[in-house]
Amino acid sequence: MTHRIAPSILSADFARLGEEVASVIEAGADWIHFDVMDNHYVPNLTIGPGVAQAIKPHCVRADGSKVPLDVHLMVQPVDALAVAFAKAGADLISFHPEASAHVDRTLQLIHGEGCKAGLVFNPATPLDVLEWAIDKVDLILIMSVNPGFGGQSFIASALRKVAQARKIIDAEKARSGRDIALEVDGGIKVDNIRAVAEAGADTFVAGSAIFGQPDYKAVIDAMRAQLAAAAR
């Protein structure tokens, strides 16, 4: 299994956002995670498509290879903003199924804009919708905190949901051959990332655990060491 670390710029220094993105990529980030909150679906207001467009040129490694921009929409309604972020340069766009009037249609809309599409599940939200939508999903994101604010503590019951999602993904891969990413967001730190990987996750969103430290590379390297141990 390929493990990916996706630092969340929600915890970055917004006054130096381009530099922060470049620094965390230099430190070894695989994806850049971009949290969008609308003060409606969640009780916070963050950043919009203009910011995504501004940081997109910074989502590149020293060798010129591109780093995916992973947009998590905590908004309601979804469709208009999904299109706006696709046009701003998003590579992956995920949304909460309960925030969309028509989940299947929204997934098709995101694909139609040339992006990969994902569904996000809050701590108390069941995975039932995947029974009907798994064939159109490229990413499943399990929230291990309640969405709205960075810096929260990991909710341990998320591990059971990650394991459940892994079974669904493996069954779909056996059926269709498709690779679906399993991402976890909320309270991910060096001391719990191994347990999350062992539950079945392959992509890990970390905000304050990385951006709250002076040496981004040291944190990402420590996380990778834990992931390597989980793979053994």
Tell the overall outline. globular
Structural class, from helix and strand content? alpha/beta
Order of helices and strands: EHEHEHEHEHEHEHEHH
Rg over CA atoms = 16 Å
Strand order of the largest sheet: 1-8-7-6-5-4-3-2
CATH superfamily: Aldolase class I
User: How far apart lie the N and C ends?
Assistant: 11 Å
Q: Uncertain segments of ≥5 residues (pLDDT<50)?
A: none
What is the CATH first-level class name? Answer: Alpha Beta
Report on the architecture of this protein.
- The protein is α/β, with parallel strands linked by helices.
- The protein has a single domain, classed as TIM Barrel.
- The chain has nine helices and eight strands.
- The chain has helices spanning 17-26, 49-55, 79-88, 103-112, 130-133, 158-176, 193-199, 208-211, 216-231; strands at 4-7, 32-37, 69-74, 92-95, 116-121, 139-143, 181-185, 203-206.
- The protein has an eight-stranded parallel β-sheet.
- The termini are close together.
Quick structural overview:
The chain is α/β, with parallel strands linked by helices and 232 residues long. The protein is 38% helix and 17% strand.
List keywords for this structure.
TIM Barrel, globular, 232 residues, alpha/beta, 8-stranded parallel sheet, 38% helix
Question: What's the structural blueprint in terms of helices and strands?
Answer:
Blueprint: E1 4-7, H1 17-26, E2 32-37, H2 49-55, E3 69-74, H3 79-88, E4 92-95, H4 103-112, E5 116-121, H5 130-133, E6 139-143, H6 158-176, E7 181-185, H7 193-199, E8 203-206, H8 208-211, H9 216-231
Parallel strand pairs: 1-8, 2-3, 3-4, 4-5, 5-6, 6-7, 7-8
Helix pairs in contact: 2-3, 7-9
